[in-house]
Amino acid sequence: MAQILVFPMVLLLTFSPSSYAKCAYEAIFNFGDSNSDTGGFYSAFPSQPSPNGMTYFSKPT
């Protein structure tokens, strides 16, 4: 079964056009974008408090 899948994959990867393209820029600089630092994910997508932002009769549980 593995040989049946490996051969078509090798053919596909061998004859497929390459997606490599020369970039016009040598480097990309980012000066302090808050969503690009390591904590940006939590800033952009904050988690909801338990249980999913809902309260029980408007009082904390």
UniProtKB/TrEMBL annotation:
Domain of life (superkingdom): Eukaryota
InterPro entries for this protein: SGNH_hydro_sf (IPR036514)
Sorted UniProt keywords: Signal
UniProt signal peptide: 1-21
Gene3D superfamilies xrefs: SGNH hydrolase
The keyword Electron transport appears for this protein: no
Family to which this protein belongs: Belongs to the 'GDSL' lipolytic enzyme family.
Protein name: GDSL esterase/lipase
Organism: Erythranthe guttata (Yellow monkey flower)
